[in-house]
Each structure stands twice: as C-alpha cells, then as structure tokens.
Automatic annotation (TrEMBL):
Residues 1-21 form the signal peptide. Gene3D superfamilies: Gamma-glutamyl cyclotransferase-like. This is Putative gamma-glutamylcyclotransferase. SUPFAM superfamilies: Gamma-glutamyl cyclotransferase-like. The lineage of its organism: Eukaryota, Fungi, Dikarya, Ascomycota, Pezizomycotina. Keywords: Signal, Transferase. InterPro entries: AIG2-like, AIG2-like_dom, GGCT-like, GGCT-like_sf. Residues 8-128 form the Gamma-glutamylcyclotransferase AIG2-like domain. It comes from Triangularia setosa. Belongs to the gamma-glutamylcyclotransferase family. The keyword Ribonucleoprotein does not apply. PANTHER family: AIG2-LIKE PROTEIN D. GO terms for molecular function: transferase activity. It comes from the Eukaryota. It holds the Pfam family GGACT.
Amino acid sequence: MTTAAMPLFIYGILCAPQFLATLLQEPNETALNVAARITRMLQAVTVKGYEQRSKYFGGGYALGPAAIASEDPEAKIQGFLLTLASTSPRRKLDNFEGEGEAYKSVPVQIYVTISNQLVSADMHLWNGSMGKISLDPWDLAAIMRNGL
C-alpha cells in the first residue's frame, strides 16, 4: 500500500512543466507520458502572506527562487497545487529543494484559483541566510525567455 503525500504548493522553477517533468520522471516513462501524468496533478493556486524573491549567489542570481514570509498584507505567490499519489515523488522534490538546509517544509493555506476554495498544503520556505536573498522579485517568465 502506498501512502499519499500531503499536497504541495509549488512555485518558481517547478512551475515550468518540462522542468517538473524531468524531476518526476520515472524509469522507462516517456516524456509524453510524464507530461500527461503531471498535468492531471496540478491546479492553479495562490498563497497569501509570502513573497517570491531571487536568490543571490555572488556574481549573479540563481535560476531558483526563494519564498519568504512577507510583512506586506497584499503579498502573494502564484503557483500550482501538486497532488501526488505517493511519498516517493515528494521526497524527490524535497531533495531537489534541499529540505532542512536551504528550505523547510511548512504548512500553508492556499486559494484554488478556479473555485477560490481554501486548501491546506505544504510549501518549501527559505531557511537559509537572508543575505542570499535579493530585494528583486523572481520572475519565471523572464527565466523562460532567457532559456531554462
């Protein structure tokens, strides 16, 4: 018997379908099959009270963003609710994010865009040095325009 994982709020680079598919692809699974499988697991959502910022690494910004708690009551991050059938793919995502080192998994309330329903999920929140976080917001569209 497999145990379902808590739904996960994903944002940033994980919202790029081809990137998420690469992380979650199983052995012997075609790219087309993984893309179709992942599409069924995603819902557009928003989490309020957080900001998505660029991570700064010396000479430039990393591709990845960092979610941080915000003092701005209007702050929000748009992303997807990812509902996984088992804990194995969730562990892959936790390992990718560096859970426990750079990020920690925290429970959040998110709003499902299509229904405005409030749902519980986990989110990877920045747990590293704030000195590595830029004041600049992180922009997936700009990353996609410049090549992933």
